[in-house]
What does this fold into?
Amino acid sequence: MPANLSPDYKAAEVAFRRASDPKERLERLREMLRTIPKHKGTEHLQADIKTRIKQLTEELAAGRKGGSRSGPSHVVRPEGAAQIALLGPPNSGKSTLHDRLTRSHAEAGPYPFTTQFPQPGMIPYEDVNLQLVDLPPITDQYTVPWIVNALQPADAALLVVDVGAPDCMDQLGGLLSALASRKITFVPEWKRAHRTASEAPRDTEEISDPFAIRLPAALVAARADENPDADDELEILQELLEIGFPSLAVSARTGDGLDALAKWLFEALEVVRVYTKAPGRPPDFGQPFTVRRGDTVQDVARMVHQEIADSLKFGRLWRNAASSGRQVGRDYRVADRDVLELVTGRE
It folds into this structure.
């Protein structure tokens, strides 16, 4: 039966996909339920939306009861230039890797399921930070029930494996299978066009699943110091499982390869740093605003303040030290290390 989804519903669904804050996601879910056509063809989707509303409402209520917490304990609000989920089977070296990359001092031990709750930390790279969230281990026998909500704000994932473990292939296969059963899948492409394809409005009448999560992923061997053939083992593992993720071999114990991993993440995520300046003043190089390749002057203005974005007329842009500020429109695409002055209607 045709879904006959209304433009209002489609807009609400796109807004839900883009939302990262739990409260905003709840508002968008309610809007989806309000605007979805009520007929037999959408009954399943209506039920799914109601279930998600109930789960997220309970998560938010649990956070409020927790005193100082203002949100659900199983969802980490995004900070920094991007949020990356750290996933892996038990005893893969995941938590030790998180500690070395972020200096989180999170508990790590030689026994399974040391990590019980999301553990956020920041990976510094030059003048920006990437948020890395360590999540509980995943097996084909057990996955925490809140994993979907925890992965909703993520921009990408690192899948950590111990290539020296005899059952490494079964562990990774079990992880991928367990998450796929919860509508969470991974793709090898990290380009922005691929990440945002699912957010584009649809003109067809078919119902896609608005709750399916597809994250770009990379495979990481965290104990390369214990296995000199880690790169080859990663390649064999990918061939056997018929996956084609980017792969990196590092050592969480010695630190080898960690700087290269931070650089790789920055480049793969296509982070763009923009430094702002006020009229007649030097640029603020203290902390850049971070967007993604393909984003525009308007996107930067929105990050500075919504009122500035609403009243923005144009920007003045400096692309290098020798250039003079030139006027650019709101839809002009910014590049890494641009200096931008935002001119509003009030100026």
